[in-house]
Write a structure and sequence with these properties.
Length: about 90
């Protein structure tokens, strides 16, 4: 079984609004919840982290890896993505 199980994943308005600005997509967030590493987060929530090969520029700088970290509230019938953090690694000058 995958980390995030098979419950539906829904996005809060805040999380949906932030995707493009933070450099990720709904699909990457879903992949992070389903297959990423799970760890406790504040307020009883869950943080999932998953690294993706990136190999391109973001905001004027080249990066090899993008890490997507959705913060999720788990309910009985669904996961709610509350917000999403994105980190970029392996930049070259």
């Amino acid at each position: 079984m995958t980390n995030g199980g098979t419950k539906p994943i829904v996005f809060s308005q805040h999380a949906a609004d932030q995707l493009a600005d933070r450099g990720t997509s709904r699909e990457e967030v879903i992949q992070a919840v389903r297959f990423g590493a799970r760890q406790p987060a504040k307020k009883g929530r869950i943080a999932y982290t998953k690294n993706f090969s990136f190999e391109k520029e973001w905001k004027g700088r080249y990066y090899r890896i993008k890490q997507v970290m959705p913060i999720v509230a788990e309910e009985k019938e669904k996961y709610i993505v509350v917000t999403v953090f994105v980190f970029f690694f392996g930049g070259e000058k």
